[in-house]
Amino acid sequence: MKKIILREDEMPTRWYNVIPDIPNGLEPPLDPETLQPVGPEKLAAVFPMGLLEQEMSQERFIDIPQEVLEIYKIWRPSPLVRAYKLEEALGTKAKIFFKNEGVSPVGSHKPNSAVPQAYYNKREGVKRLTTETGAGQWGSALSMAASRFGLECKVYMVRVSYDQKPYRKFIMQTFGAEVAASPSMDTRTGRAILARDPDTPGSLGIAISEALEDASAHDDTNYALGSVLNHVVLHQSITGLEAKKQMEIAGEYPDVIIGCCGGGSNFAGLMVPFIPDYLDGKKIEFIGYEPASCPSMTGGKLAYDSGDVAMMTPLLYMYTLGHDFVPPGIHAGGLRYHGMAPIVSALVRDGIVIPKAVHQMECFEAGILFAKTEGIIPAPETTHAIRGAIIEAMKDPKEPKTILFNFSGHGLIDMAAYDNYLNGKLSDYSYPQEQIDASLARLPKVG
Ligand SMILES: *Cc1c(COP(=O)(O)O)cnc(C)c1O
């Protein structure tokens, strides 16, 4: 069978929450001022209770609301595909499966969380959502979701992407969202940064600060985050729950599960539903691939850190490169974040997830091989997972192991990156350890 498709009535109706199954648990988020655990009251200023309950929940399974299931059905259940032609080209005995999240309306896994986030905000009377976006994948997902529920949406888009990658901006505007280049004149944070440095390219950290400030300043407005937080990982678990059923139909079970890691949500979403089996003694390797140019797990430190430059977010216990780390301009925009989801971080700490770093040139090469063999052009982020799957398949090409990876998105709106690669304009870049150490020296001092 080339691809395994579930019927709509076989789609999971509950998300899986891995938190109670993390062997050594999670550390609580801290208030950046008092350094005490933050209560839901404070977070309720920018998040709806429905999501805050999920953020802290100890329930293993949480019902997916009917309204969310109906919208999921636009593209879910997503196909599980066996990459026969890739296997053949590699000459490996390994079986390579991928979960194709590129079939969503905006071409990535991000709507899996954007839709429930818009739903819970709508249910609690919120009128408007703010968010940040780098290359625009999260911004387009949230714009789509907000439009489904009749919410206004304002997206602070990192200046360089706003200028150089306009197509996702047009997608957001098509769904009715307002898009501002960040830093903008619309917030105090943005105006202060522009006064100092009018030509700044902006950063994800600055855009988060602006979106948070906007949400805090308006009663009818909440903030939405596309990765990192526990509720995002919960929503993304739909991919792993479906994949588990599909692997069963294929008569296979994965020996290795792979994903690319920016904030960690697509990798975690595919992998966490397999954790209970792992804890029951099943042998599975979980490998998260991050870029060598933004190596939170392989080059950073497990510590409390802020999610943004202005230190407005609660401090999260996570692998981090430091909240003022400025990643280089690599093309996998969605992997340029200084921190890693606390859930993924805890699983690395507990020795369940193995983190590895790969360079962008080998990833593009893998992406092009995938395009030529499987016929789908992957997002630059996704090429990191593909490279990872190839590394696993080629360790011992005679070993008949089963590999499952998350195909987090297609690359049809990222063709400028491929153009640069094909015309020799890209090179590898490892972040110098001294600079990582310098930014880690500025971590908030906790305990
Ligand atoms: C945003 C994005 C990522 C990285 O985000 P995670 O939270 O780590 O999943 C990966 N792939 C694609 C296609 C993305 O849009």
From TrEMBL:
The keyword Iron does not apply. CDD domains: Trp-synth_B. Its EC number is 4.2.1.20. Pfam families: PALP. GO terms for molecular function: L-serine hydro-lyase (adding indole, L-tryptophan-forming) activity; pyridoxal phosphate binding; tryptophan synthase activity. InterPro entries: Trp_synth_b-like, Trp_synth_b_CS, Trp_synth_beta, Trp_synth_beta/beta-like, TrpB-like_PALP, TrpB-like_PALP_sf. Keywords: Amino-acid biosynthesis, Aromatic amino acid biosynthesis, Lyase, Pyridoxal phosphate, Tryptophan biosynthesis. It catalyses: (1S,2R)-1-C-(indol-3-yl)glycerol 3-phosphate + L-serine = D-glyceraldehyde 3-phosphate + L-tryptophan + H2O. Pathway: Amino-acid biosynthesis; L-tryptophan biosynthesis; L-tryptophan from chorismate: step 5/5. GO terms for cellular component: cytoplasm. Residues 75-409 form the Tryptophan synthase beta chain-like PALP domain. Its cofactor is pyridoxal 5'-phosphate. The modification N6-(pyridoxal phosphate)lysine is found at residue 110. It is an enzyme of class 4 (lyase). Tetramer of two alpha and two beta chains. Belongs to the TrpB family. HAMAP family: Trp_synth_beta. The beta subunit is responsible for the synthesis of L-tryptophan from indole and L-serine. NCBIfam families: PRK12391.1 (NF009057), trpB_rel (TIGR01415). This is Tryptophan synthase beta chain. It comes from Desulfobulbus oligotrophicus.
